[in-house]
Every structure is written in structure tokens, then in C-alpha cells.
Amino acid sequence: xxxxxxxxxxxxxxxxxxxxxxxxxxxxxxxxxxxxxxxxxxxxxxxxxxxxxxxxxxxxxxxxxxxxxxxxxxxxxxxxxxxxxxxxxxxxxxxxxxxxxxxxxxxxxxxxxxxxxxxxxxxxxxxxxxxxxxxxxxxxxxxxxxxxxxxxxxxxxxxxxxxxxxxxxxxxxxxxxxxxxxxxxxxxxxxxxxxxxxxxxxxxxxxxxxxxxxxxxxxxxxxxxxxxxxxxxxxxxxxxxxxxxxxxxxxxxxxxxxxxxxxxxxxxxxxxxxxxxxxxxxxxxxxxxxxxxxxxxxxxxxxxxxxxxxxxxxxxxxxxxxxxxxxxxxxxxxxxxxxxxxxxxxxxxxxxxxxxxxxxxxxxxxxxxxxxxxxxxxxxxxxxxxxxxxxxxxxxxxxxxxxxxxxxxxxxxxxxxxxxxxxxxxxxxxxxxxxxxxxxxxxxxxxxxxxxxxxxxxxxxxxxxxxxxxxxxxxxxxxxxxxxxxxxxxxxxxxxxxxxxxxxxxxxxxxxxxxxxxxxxxxxxxxxxxxxxxxx
Length: 536
Known about the structure:
It contains 20 helices and 21 strands. Helix 17 runs antiparallel to helix 18. By secondary structure, it is α+β, with helices and mostly antiparallel strands. Strands 3, 4, 5, 6, 7 and 8 form a 6-stranded antiparallel beta sheet that branches. The protein has a 6-stranded mixed beta sheet with strand order 10-11-12-15-16-21, with helices on both faces. Strands 1, 13, 14, 17 and 18 form a 5-stranded antiparallel beta sheet that branches.
């Protein structure tokens, strides 16, 4: 009965928060609870009943008002807080074996002698290899409180005996910038995959290293960036604007309008800027790209963004669980509401990207539905932009379905290609690093052999007909071979080296470089008048 009382409290709390329900409705629901507690024929799982009830309250509000259990909250915040406590490795479970892909530099595993390519055999004397270990179980074994120890035994290529070591768990940084490098002596590239607690520090360190020249230019890649902390997005925007510039506002029925201004003059306020987005750029990524576009501060290239513009407030419940409740909506400086419609229900909303794909929006700009009633003008140069869901780029780049055929993307998404690359890198790591002394040499000279391609085909496909059908495509398609080379570089070096190779054939990056290199085109897109006093 005690649990049922708790259930009543939590559910009534949610009702009061969500809908200001009148007392009659609260009493009616209480009658149902009392009837279940006193008269129901079978035993009831009160915890599940509680969670189901809360989820049912939320599901009719909007797609982003959600409930999270206590355990889910920890995983949810892991990438946003910027660190977690663990041993500092990345891994993949391949053929029932845990293969260590990389170790964090100066992290606990590297300090204990663990190397990329090692295969974990035991953890705390519990056999891991060949036991059907799950990712969830592995995380439980490897993570723990700071300064606690874990004993790991690994199999290392070239060693006859197993290698055992004790690792002291420590805080492991979770980076929000996955790649940062100079494409040439003028243009820097930064790939930002989330807006976390460490994003601003990471961005400052990257730009301090890369953007040292007065005329430095930036390609900020926000593709597949699902968002994160609002304050991180606003503070990031401060780098590109003058002080007291309105970059965002929020408004809601029970939340009066709140304006967000830059608090300082940006270091890169006069540097040319390109933002890359796609259909998986959401929330904070849309705030950044929307502000840059509305204020004619830079050029947005790619495909229409996801369209998530709802402000969520976390409300913690008495058992440590949480609801994330929508309290307002995001608006760009021109007044565009980023949020796409959700009036047809959650299922239709969740299938929006599929609908876009089927309608041809990913491959043809003319397939995009633009609502004439949602036309807006940018604030400085009066360019036409659209509201109604997501940020529409200034330059459209179709998804590359020609150079990366469907059968290849299917295998890439399934993880089979990545599995093979991990095994290939593990087997050939020493030879490759000896042959190609630096990444620059690897980038210039390495090419995946036809024999390795045959091995890849044999690993992916069991059917001989499929093997023969796809072998020629894999061996002759230079784009596929370049991406395989990039994947190998990622295993041997890091994400930055992966993008250094992949971006050589990335149409959005190529277009960004073209626009940045052509000041006339850059100015025309932004509707600037070119004068002797024009920027740069």
C-alpha cells in the first residue's frame, strides 16, 4: 500500500505540473487507485504502473516531453557533463570478443599498459571472451567510482602469454569536438557533435591553436549534432557576434518571452563562417545555425535540419526519476519557430525523416515543402528565409546516394564493415605504422589492396552470388575505397584523421571551401555589397 501511495503522489504531482487539473479529476483518478489497491484480483507491479501512468500523461503533450528512470538519467547525462568515471578505452564486441580500439591518452588504461588491439579475456577473474558478453554488462564491469581498481587480463598480438594489469578508474573526458584541423593555411574545420559542459573550453582550445591568422575562416560542422545545453549554444555564438546581439528568444503560454543576448564581443566576429547542417542537426545546433543565418553572419550549407525547437525543463521526482517537460518554444532572432509540427501524433512525428526521404527531400531541393505563410526576412540584409520546422540552408547539398550505393550504406549501418576494419587494423597495425611513418604519408600513399577488399566481401556476405555482385563495385568505387581508408585511419590515429581523409570527397565541405575561396560568391549569397571596406 505504501508503494501505491507513492504512485499516487508522483502521478498527482505530474498532473498538477502539466495541466492544472481540477480537483474533481484528481479525485476521480484517486478513486481508480483505491479500487486497484483494495479490490484488484491479481498483484500489481506498482513501479511499472507508476511509470506507465506518467508516460501516458506526457505522450499527449508533445514528442519531447518525456519520463526518465533514475538509471536512464545517468546515461542521458553522460555525454553532456563532459566526463564519466571509467578505465579510458573505446571498444567493440566482435565475434564474442571485446576488442580494444583505442585508449585515452594519459588515461588510466594507457598508464596501466593497455594498448589498442588488445582483446579482453577476463575482468576481475571473470571470463569475458566467448561468453556472450553484452555491452551493458561490460560497462557495469569497467565503470565504477573514482580511484577504485579493476583487474584486467588481455590477449596481445605477438605475445604468447596473456597480459594482466590493474587499472585505477578515473574521470574520463567525453569530447564534444570530434575533429579539428586546418584544411589549408586559411580555413579551419571543426566537427562538433554535441553541446556539452566542456564545449566552450574545447572550442577555445581548438580555435586558439588553429585560427591564429587575422583572415582565418571557419567551417563549423554541425551535421548529426543532436543538441545539448542551451547555454553552450548561446556562449558559442558569442564568438561570432558583437556584444548585446540578440541570438535567440523563448516564449510559452506560462513562460513569458526571454531574450538571449551575447555578453561579450566575439573574437571571430569578422571572420568568414560556414555552418554545415543536415536532417540530424537538432535543437542547440539549430539555434546556432538559425542565429548565424538570421543575422547574415555566415552561410549555412547542407539539408534542412531536424526541427526541434522546444524548451525542456527537468523536473525531478521523489524517487530520483525525472520528467523533461516542454515549457516554451525556441525562436530565432527573426522570429522563426524552429519546431516542426507534431499535431498528427508521435508516430507520424517520429517518421518525419522517413517521409522527407520518400518525398525526395534529401536528393532534390525542389521537393521541400515551403509554406508561403511562414516567410521571414533576415535582420540585416533582408534575405528570404522560412519558418515552420528546421533551418533551411542557404545552399542545398543532396545526400550522396550515387557514390555510396544503398547496398554499401546498408552494410555500413549494420556495423559489419566497421567490424572488419577493426579486425584489419588490429592485424595490420604494426605493419602499416612501420610502412607509413606518419599520417601524412599514410594519407598520401596508402590504398586498400584488392585482396583486403576480397576479405571484406567474404566477411560481410555468406552468399557467393552476393559476393560476386558486389566485389567489382567495392574494388572500383574510389569513394568507397576512400571511406574504408578513412575508417582505417580512425582506428590507427583518431577521428580527426578520419575526417581529414573523408572530407576530401565530402560535397558539403568542398562547396564550403569553394564559397570561402570566392569572396564575390560569399557576399552575393549573404546579399552584401562588396566595397573596399568589405570584410576580409
